[in-house]
Write a structure and sequence with these properties.
45% of the residues lie in helices and 17% in strands. By secondary structure, the chain is of the alpha/beta class. The chain has a six-stranded parallel beta sheet with strand order 2-1-3-4-5-11, with helices on both faces. Strand 1, helix 5 and strand 2 form a beta-alpha-beta unit. Helix 1 packs across helix 3, helix 8 packs across helix 9 and helix 10 crosses helix 11.
């Protein structure tokens, strides 16, 4: 900074203002200082600035599965909100591993990020309570806690599960499979609950919903579920399937195409999330749409409000999903 000040013919204070409070320096002087920085190859020491300020100009999003377009769309919403506040975003992928999630959280705290947005493996994990006590604010994304201890943003998945199965019932299906992921995931339990509610409201017994668990929410697991469903006898095979996310549904659809099973005439399919690939599938996929970017943007704005007012009341924002009907559940014939 001394070299820059000497080259530009200004004081150290002016260089500091150009770096930290540029609006306080005239355009002419600011241009001269910036030219000196460029000529000398000056790069500010961000670590030193963070040490003085006690925090960085970054926040972080710890997502559950970087391979799932749902989470990358949420991240886009976070990034757009952060850009409006002149902040950068670290994107971290826990990859559904609790130990990896914990490692990221510890390192982000050491980096003095302004806050962490997280889709956690377990929304009740103790680390989520410990971080705010030590000064790192936390907002929970696409999950919610039993108690309002944190700001959170999520979608009403019970309602979403109900929308999907109500639509299939309206299309005349009474034997419906629910392809869910690991039951330990709260959203899976909620979507299943909504599906069962719709079956009950139609006056049908719970065994009209055939439950098929999978080890994960991936295309390959959807293919495996398809093998199991299509391997059933015609008498026992459901006529429609509600998948807990779009990746499962796309895998199931791929298996149907490979085996010559007509969708929706032989088997109707509904997914969940309405990722970009849903509309572009070989048979456009009916899906329960979540406002993915809005989830991220809203979560980031909750974090900014918490930074500005540490005494604020935590908010739990709940969005309603929307059913987007395409050809996979309703024939155009």
């Amino acid at each position: 900074m001394r070299d820059v000040a000497a080259a530009a013919g200004v004081s150290m204070g002016t260089v500091s203002n150009v770096l930290n409070r540029p609006e306080m320096v005239s355009a002419k002087t600011r241009s001269r200082v910036q030219a000196a920085m460029s000529e000398l190859g000056f790069v500010r020491n961000e670590s030193a600035r963070q040490l003085r300020a006690g925090h960085s100009n970054t926040l972080a999003y710890v997502m559950l599965d970087g391979a799932n377009p749902f989470f990358t769309d949420v991240a886009k919403g976070i990034e757009e909100a952060a850009e409006a506040h002149d902040l950068s975003v670290f994107l971290c992928n826990s990859n559904n591993r609790a130990e990896r999630e914990l490692t990221y959280l510890n390192r982000l705290e050491q980096q003095r990020v302004q806050g962490v947005l997280i889709t956690p493996m377990d929304p009740e994990a103790a680390i989520l309570d410990e971080l705010p006590k030590r000064g790192t604010r936390v907002v929970i994304v696409d999950r919610r806690r039993a108690r309002p201890t944190h700001c959170s943003v999520t979608v009403d998945d019970v309602e979403g599960g109900g929308l999907a199965v109500e639509h299939l019932l309206e299309m005349g299906h009474t034997s419906i499979a629910f392809v869910g992921g690991p039951p330990s995931i709260g959203q899976i339990r909620d979507r299943r609950e909504g599906a069962l509610n719709a079956v009950a409201e139609a006056g049908l017994s719970p065994d009209h919903l055939i439950e098929i668990d999978t080890a994960g929410l991936t295309v390959s697991e959807g293919i495996g579920a398809g093998e199991r469903i299509l391997g059933l006898s015609a008498k026992n095979r459901p006529t429609a399937v509600f998948c807990a996310n779009d990746l499962l549904a796309l895998g199931l659809l791929q298996q149907c195409v490979a085996l010559g099973v007509r969708v929706p005439d032989d088997l109707a399919i509904i997914g969940y999330d309405d990722i970009e690939f849903a509309a572009a599938a070989a048979v456009p996929l009916t899906s329960v749409r979540q406002p993915r970017k809005l989830l991220g943007e809203t979560a980031a704005n909750l974090l900014f409000r918490e930074v500005e007012d540490p005494e604020h009341t935590h908010e739990q924002v709940l969005f309603s999903p929307e059913l987007v009907v395409r050809r996979s559940s309703r024939s155009t014939n």
